[in-house]
Amino acid sequence: MIQLEGITKSFGSLQVLKGIDLMIEKGEVVSIVGPSGAGKTTLLQIMGTLDKPDAGRIVIEGTEVNRLREKELSAFRNKHIGFVFQFHQLLPEFTALENVMIPALIQGVSAGEARRQALEMLEFLGLKERSGHKPAELSGGEKQRVAVARALINRPAVVLADEPSGSLDTRNKEELHRLFFDLRDRLGQTFVIVTHDEGLAQQTDRTIHIVDGKILSDSSQDSSQNSSLDSTQDATSAPTLDSAE
């Protein structure tokens, strides 16, 4: 699904990523963890084609995306990649329905069809009755679910999430985490999630630990090192998640 080879990235004299090699399979839920400043968000942005590496190769669904021209890259991103951020980034002047429609409209879907697809996605996420509400009228958890619906409307192959539950209370955080796994099981999406939430990281199929711009461990390949890391983090069992409303 996603293959990164030799990814480096610097900002001025600061080298943030130092030769990242990473492969993510279709249908995986992968967490990326590490201390602040380790390069997690920069890696996610490069993976999502929002930023370009200084060197290296990025292949997503068989397409070497760093060879695409800007217009081609934008179209590829809108079709194949969905994004969920810590702060929902919904447009305040638009309703939940209108916010979800935007990626479909950008892709060239007719307004009527985009509306139908958006309503279907909101209903799937339990938000049909809130479709006419603007972000200011929604709870924090509802806003994030609208953001997830927006990320999914074009049925992207991969969803990239950057601290998606960082601004939520415990209940809404647990519901959002459960939602990611439900979506993977029901729709087949691949999820890559940057998180500081140890409970979420413990539930994912793989945990990629980044320190100082390098991959320190990958739980699917280096279980002994990952276990050592877990023991230093006061690991606890993952919370039991309630079903989403």
Q: CATH-wise, what's the superfamily?
A: P-loop containing nucleotide triphosphate hydrolases
Mind summarizing the main beta sheet? Answer: 6 strands, mixed
Number of helices, counting only DSSP H or I runs of 4 residues or more: 8
> Rg to the nearest angstrom?
18 Å
**Overall number of structural domains:** 1
Strand content: 15-25%
Query: What is the distance, rounded to the nearest whole angstrom, between the alpha carbons of the first and last residues?
Result: 31 Å
InterPro entries: AAA+_ATPase (IPR003593), ABC_transporter-like_ATP-bd (IPR003439), ABC_transporter-like_CS (IPR017871), MacB-like_ATP-bd (IPR017911), P-loop_NTPase (IPR027417)
Keywords: ATP-binding, Cell membrane, Membrane, Nucleotide-binding, Translocase, Transport
Organism: Phocaeicola barnesiae
GO molecular function, one term: ATP hydrolysis activity
Can you describe what's shown?
Residues 217-234 have a biased composition (Low complexity). One of its GO terms (molecular function) is ATP binding. It comes from Phocaeicola barnesiae. Belongs to the ABC transporter superfamily. Residues 217-245 are annotated as: Disordered. The chain has a single domain, classed as 3-Layer(aba) Sandwich (Rossmann fold). The strands form 2 sheets. It has a 6-stranded mixed beta sheet. Strand 7, helix 6 (170-187) and strand 8 (190-194) form a beta-alpha-beta unit. The protein has helices spanning 40-47, 70-80, 96-106, 111-124, 140-152, 170-187, 198-203, 223-232; strands at 2-11, 14-24, 29-33, 55-60, 63-64, 81-85, 158-162, 190-194, 206-211, 214-218. Residues 221-245 have low confidence and may be disordered. The protein starts with a strand and ends in a 13-residue tail after the last helix. It contains 8 helices and 10 strands. With 245 residues, the chain is α/β, with parallel strands linked by helices. Helix 3 packs parallel to helix 5 (140-152).
